[in-house]
Amino acid sequence: MSSSYQNGAANNEEYNDLLDRDVEKTKKRRSLTIIGAFALLVAIILGVTLMNKPKEDSQSIDSKPIQSGNVDVGKDGELKLFDDLNRYVFEDYDARSTFASFLPGVAGYFGKPVWAFYVNRGQGISTFGTLSKEYPMLEFNAANKAYQSTPFVGFRTFIRGSRGLKKESFNVEPFAPSNSRNPDKKDDDPTKPKRIMFVGNNEMEIRETDSVNDITTSVEYFVLPEEKFASLIRRSTFKNNGPGPVTLDILDGLAKMEPAGGRLDWGLKEMGRTLEGWFGVYHAEDGDLTMPFYKMSTEPSDKASVVIEYAGHYCLAFIESEDSTSELLPIIYDTAKVFGKTTSLHHPSALDASSVADIIATPQHGFARTSSAFAAVDQVTLQAGESITIGSVYGKASAIEKVGEIAKVVTQPGYMSKKSKRARDLMNELTEGVETNTVNKLFNGAVRQMFLDNSIRGGLPTIVGNVNNDKTYDEDDGVKVFHAFSRIHGDLERDYNTFKIEAGYFSQGPGNYRDIAQNRRNDVTFVPKLGSFDIQQFLSFIQADGYEPLTVESIVFIFNDPEKVTEIAKQVTADPESEKVLSAVLNGGPFRPGQVFDLCDELNISLTSSDEEFINILTASAEDLPMATFGQGYWGDHWDYYIDLIESYLNIFPDQEENLMYNNKLRYFFSTATVKPRNQKYVLDLNVDATGKHVMQLESTVFDTDKVAEQEAFRNSKSGLIGIEAEWQRTTDGVSFKSTPIAKLFLLGAIKFATRDVYGMGVEYEGGRPGWLDSMNGLPGMIGSGMPETNELLLLLKYVLKVVESYDRPIEIPSELDKMVTIINTALDELNESGFKDVEAVEELPEDVPQELFSYWDVVACARENYRNDVQYYFSGNETEYSASKVSDMITKWIEQVEIGIKRAMYFSTKGFADDGTSGVPPSYFSYNVTDFVETGERNNVGHPLVNAKAMRVKVFPQFLEGPVRYMKTIQDDKDQMQDIYQKVLKSGLRDKKLNMYFLSSSLEGQTYDMGRQIAFAPGWLENQSIWVHMSYKYYLQLLRGKLFKEFFEEMKGGGILPFMDPKVYGRSLMECSSFIASSAFPDPALHGEGFVARLSGSTAEFMHMWKLMFLGSKLFYLNDKGDVEMQLVPALPSWLFEDETSDSDPEFDEDGSHIISFKLFTKILVTYHNAGGNDIFDVPPKKYIIEMKNGTINYVDGPIIPTGYALAIRRVSQVKSIDAYF
């Protein structure tokens, strides 16, 4: 008999010996046969439940099986890493290294999500809420604190049970940390419960098997899908594994439940005790404990304007039933009734001294304190093998009257089990477009997970409007694109980012520019119907100054024709009043789908059509507009990703390039920040150790109040909001200025060419922020520049050159730009005539910048600054036409200069710890010391003297992986050069020889703190010489692009790419990316190879690009010599994806005995590869194809090329059912 909430002392060692393969054989065993123990093990692992009727005198129950799939034992004798529901399996999850992750926050297009984060401690969920971390139901804490607090302030379960004739009682808290197994302790108690975590792509489940008390507790979490209210669902199942009946008292729920009351996170952290004065627990029905409502009386403030709080959080719980409506359980919200004076919450001391029945009968108090939310079950009896499930619903309602309505919905027969299945099916539907079937199940699952996480970060491209035709966004104005489910990557480990997940239909949130631009790279590969949407959106964000905003928001829709609005409102509404109100809504300004649905509910607009029909009718007739906000600073890499977007588009639509580049007009984004000229940002400041002074580039941008005043002209007098038109730069006549995409790309190339550093090598970080590697935040201050941007500039200029030479059409550019370009070209001619001898003509280049180059740089930089001054507020509206030949001649000269700059960079190379500069690894960054300057006599706003530079000296940096990655993009068609760079990187300080991976940087030992937080961290941690997965994946992608297939797949299978890492070392799901992996440079070897900062990384974009090249090849559609579209599948697939002796799965064969694997093309068309002999298929086209149409027609194509007619039909998607390709 035990009075504390932990396992008793009874032994069941034979059972645990089988259940836990890590525990050594124990000396004494309870009398239990091997056969019986094995049967019990199988019953627990498979979730088998014996369905017995409850005793008549027990509380009414509806017996349920444990919610879990089958877990098999692999060839190595260990539990497989996934179950039959394709969920990742963590055995002894709470005894492993800590990790944090999250439920995806996706409730379907017509559902309202909550956000929820979990850790592998306690009962998992560490925080959840609505919209952002400012609105928690369980307080948001960063990962390091969540690991400590979750087992105590999170979800808890307390069981008091009795069994047998003598009614021997036991108290137990499932998942309590006091009973976690200790793998480091050789004589650890083998009777401790066995715990497993199951991680699905839209759910998380934990299970504890307690062999001492013969109880299995399973808890499943998921976000409620496709409802009008947002909720987190918790299903706690209790199963009796004993030979006889057991009677249980149960408290199951949340130890700390925060109320609704405005933005709370700040107050919980800064004035938590004072804030509790506003807290209160109310009741939907007086005297009823089943529907508590947690809210603040008012929003906490001392302002004259008081905001009364009507919304609140609710907790509803019940014993689930498949056959009848469930009755709500009483909720224990008074924390003291459970924990008494144990304010640490580590033990339920009040429950120890009482009973569930007594607590229910005792008055509770919920004001001026943080309350709990425990579902209370009093005296339920389970027969042998029987189980019950407590379903709990945690959410937010706009008013207390809504809680009863929600309760009626969730207590319907079978509701929870149906929603659990729907949550799983929903995610399968959203990811079925990348269904991949190889012999490696983990790889197949990883593809789906990577696609999901890529979609969450970049948004899932969704076609709305005219969805029932074959036309693309470019062909039909009624076809619209909306990226659903996107958000910035804020989570427990990225605690610095403020994520936002709207609790509405078509939920979405803003994201960072570089994240969105990279993660949408392959949208058109999966959804060809979106056409050039992404390209047009991102090119429209290019500003007149060559920069882009920080934050990309979702597309908005707007109606400009009131008559069309009246027509639509009449079509979709059920009565005149609804028609009138909807018309007012649609004429009121821009909207997103979720906002319209919310307003329809709030304003009681009665609709005649389904939700799907309604939104398609609206969006088909509305105009779509991109949205963004400046944010902070101008990053140097935002434009780096345009060529990738264009290449992906041309891989599907090679015949539409001219139309895209010349037959569209795009606007210019208008930010409220202005880049300062050099004489306003070159300042004299103390150096890092304050031993002297040096010139730095500081406060490069300024918040431009004149631009703000310009935007005020668009403020709506009725709403008080600034209109969308204010975000687009106008001419002096007040008209939005527009250019063709090719003209905007030319403008971008010209500005970046004019922004090359004083030695003509890197592109300067003169906008105040660095490039992709933003941990080099000090580099702009060092007058730094980046070779990654130079390599991207080379690709950009080559693309513009190709286009103008291919189509021989003129381009029209702003006349202000023509003035700048003219000066650049004149200065370039003067440099060429100066007699300056470059890197190929001299034995060595001096670190001090030659005067000829400095003079050229100074003239060009002045021209750039004057251009920006000319277009700071308006374009004149005048344009200058350049002929194709003029553009070609000009860009050819620019390309020559860029290539010379790259050669100079290779000469200066890299230098650092154990790096003498002879490695041949392409450099990433340079900076410049100003060796001569003149003070201007002015000071900046913090008192630093401003200067004009007169001479500079170049400084080099150690090796960074980004250098070779970007350089390899410029040589990927030269296999010999690719192999040469690969070997140099392999032998360099960028290779982590212990992990067989690649460091983000080589050792930074000896470097100064000037460069920024890059060096502030311990080596091997965060960006300092860690394995940064995104950049590593960019590197691996370049191997694949360069057709180094052998090297790529050796790196992949060798553990460089998920899911082929060691699961015990990686420490989290092999189907989920981390941002970084602690490298062998980290001081603590125990963490080497462990992943940190979960998911939503740009690495998912690289992984999906790798998948595309592996399964589709580099040129899916192309133009033949006649200019007609043809198609060819040229995959790069290793034999071990067809058959692998190390895999637990058997290979598949066709009727002829050929190995087969399959995947989805364009998310719809099933493609099967038939591999006779099961060999590697590297860059080899099929010998024939069989194309089945949806009307049953079978078409045979002999040879490697799919001709035009079939190719176009496949690209249209809708007519084609499947493709079989034979190798």
What's this model, at a glance?
The protein is an alpha+beta fold. Helix content is 29%, strand content 22%.
Please give the structural blueprint.
Blueprint: H1 13-19, H2 34-46, E1 88-91, E2 100-103, E3 115-119, E4 125-129, E5 136-138, H3 143-153, E6 155-163, E7 168-172, E8 194-199, E9 204-210, E10 215-223, E11 231-240, E12 246-257, H4 265-270, H5 272-275, E13 279-283, E14 292-296, E15 312-319, E16 331-332, H6 335-339, H7 349-352, H8 356-361, E17 371-382, E18 387-397, H9 401-410, H10 415-431, E19 436-437, H11 441-458, E20 460-465, E21 479-484, E22 511-512, H12 513-519, H13 523-526, H14 533-540, E23 551-558, H15 562-572, H16 576-586, H17 593-602, H18 611-621, E24 623-629, H19 642-652, H20 657-662, E25 666-667, E26 673-675, E27 682-686, E28 693-697, E29 701-703, H21 705-711, E30 730-731, E31 738-739, H22 741-753, E32 763-764, E33 785-786, H23 787-807, E34 811-814, H24 815-833, H25 851-870, E35 874-875, E36 879-882, H26 884-908, E37 925-939, E38 945-956, H27 962-971, H28 975-986, E39 991-992, E40 997-998, E41 1027-1028, H29 1029-1041, H30 1045-1056, H31 1063-1066, E42 1074-1077, E43 1091-1094, H32 1099-1111, E44 1117-1119, E45 1125-1127, E46 1132-1133, E47 1148-1149, E48 1155-1161, ...
Parallel strand pairs: 30-35, 49-53
Antiparallel strand pairs: 1-8, 2-3, 3-4, 4-5, 6-7, 6-12, 8-9, 9-10, 10-11, 11-18, 12-17, 13-14, 14-15, 15-18, 16-17, 19-48, 20-21, 22-23, 23-24, 25-31, 26-29, 27-28, 32-33, 33-37, 34-36, 37-38, 39-40, 41-42, 42-43, 44-45, 46-50, 47-48, 48-49, 51-52, 51-53
Helix pairs in contact: 1-2, 10-11, 11-12, 11-32, 14-19, 15-16, 22-23, 23-26, 23-27, 24-25, 27-29, 29-30, 29-32
